[in-house]
Amino acid sequence: MIRPHTVTITSAAEAVRARSFAARVVGALGVPEVDRIRFLTALTARLRKALGRGGTHLTLTVLPSAADGTVLLRAVGEPAGRGVVGEPAGQVVVGEPAGQGRDRTAPWRLALTCPGPAPRALPSYGPADGAQGTLDDCANPDGAYEAPDAVRLAEAVLAADEEAAVLVGRLDDTESQLRLHLEELHQTNQGVLALHAELEAAAQAQRDLLVAERAARGEAEKARGLLTFLADASAAVTASLDQEDILRRLPGLLVPEYASDIDVWLFDEPAEGNGARSAAAVTAARLGRPQHAGPHPAALPGIDDLPPSALSPDRPLLCIPLTGRGTSGVVTLTAPESGFDEGTSVMLVELARRTAIALDNARQYEQHRDTAVALQRAQLTELPPTEEVRLAARYLPATRGLNIGGDWYDAFPQPDGSLLTVIGDVTGHGLRAAVIMGQLRTALRAYAVEDDSPARILTRLHRMLRHQQPDLYATAIIARFRPGDPHVVWAAAGHPPAVVRAPGGDVRVLNTRPGVMLGVPLPFEYTDHTAELPAGSTLVMYTDGLVERRSLGMDPGIELLGETLAAFGDSELENLDDCAESLLKPLVHDSEREDDVCFLLCHVLPAGGGAP
Fold first, then answer.
1. If phi over 0 gives left and psi between -120 and 50 gives alpha, with beta otherwise, what is residue 146?
2. How do 122-123 and 132-133 pair as beta strands?
3. Which has the closest alpha carbon to 418: 445, 389, 398?
4. Is the pLDDT assigned to residue 595 strictly greater than 90?
5. Separation between Cα atoms, residue 451 and residue 444, nearest integer Å
6. Staple 433 to which of 386, 418, 428, 609, CB 3.0 to 4.6 Å?
7. DSSP letter string over 512-565?
8. pTM above 0.70, yes or no
9. Neighbouring C-beta atoms of residue 458, cutoff 10 Å
10. What Rg value do the Cα atoms of the chain yield, rounded?
């Protein structure tokens, strides 16, 4: 440690010399400029205050600090009226007052940590000759300092200004850097604002895309729903071949979701009520184009706009012509609460077109069916009255599809007095089946004139059908009754077995294996079979439409037929027509017929029973 040195400062010149000396000391100790200026500024302020209070004793001490190699410079001031106070050891913070009191006579101290190590020689405190020495050499032998030199004072002031200039330069650099930082901060803020604007624009674009996507998804869902409805509604209207049934289904399909009301105008049917038609319906019928009549134009695709209708001034009307193979009518739809939109109107126009085709198909079917029924009924035999056998027959056309024309029954007497009864079924349906059935009936009667054997008649029919209609087949069963003979002779060609009810109610099935179907492309000779059939017995011959159900087959139906026959009393069979009606109820009337139903009841009378 360099010995501490104390000087007494009572004037401004002495204060300047002390400050100049302290500046040279901290400069020699290598203190950084900013720390040096802070220390010297604090020291100058202390000295200036001390001059107003009568002076001060200034003690400067340089001593090593901790093991890190730094040096501590300490300045301690005591009022001039007191003696010099020794310095305690330890670190003192710059600006910390010494002692406990804070009155105007309290000592003060400043401390500065220097980089170190401490030099062996420091600037001397003396005249302005620039001589160097230690702190111990700063005073004269008598303890008094020489008068300050004007040049030395000027240099001290210039040095202070120089230090201030350094600080000002530092401040300028700091301000310049601060301006640069502020500019960078401003640009950063602008960039952040621009980025925020871009993000907001991107977010808005994303929101717009989401809205558009939801709208597109909604439109797609609506279109999918309309297509699904159109498919289901089309299946509903085309499933029926009955015009009235088709027209009954339309309101249930369209009201109330797609229309609040619906009216169908068919040109070939008489008008109901007052027969008033809207001008839009008349225009649609005349032009063959859909018309929209409402208070405001709807601009629907492919649809003309008209003024509101007098029949519906408050609700728009959509009048669509029923155009299939031709225009057969107009369907008028009264708008629902939501009105007609583009997608719904396109669907309704397409549904009307398909409905028109379904109505055309139903109309053609009805025409074919009526023709086939008329042809078939014209060829069904009026049953002949006989003394030995009482006869009753029923024929019912199918209720589904064009399933008319294949089934027939026949009964006619032979020249020898016997009676031939026939039940047959031609495969296929419609007019062709009815025509082939007529040919078989005529050929069978012709063959029966030459031969009374049921088997030989079937054999000749088989040959004829093989050669004339190689792609058409038929089934048949022929039974021959001879007067006074308690037996029946029969033969079958692929036909369901006949059922016999004996007197008293016993029932048996003539289930001898039948021959092949008529027309099968192979030669075949049929065989006659004989069954006992005493007076009071009833023989039932039928086609498969009476007993066969698609989900159950034929056996349950034959069993039900036998049970129904067994339930008849012997006296009930005297009225054979009533029995025929009673036979239909459990077997047919409770089900929808997919095939024709035909059967023939043959009740054997006792000898001398007489014709019915």
1. beta
2. antiparallel
3. 389
4. no
5. 10
6. 428
7. PPPBPPBT-SS------EEEE--TT-EEEEE-HHHH-BTTTBSHHHHHHHHHHH
8. no
9. 30
10. 65
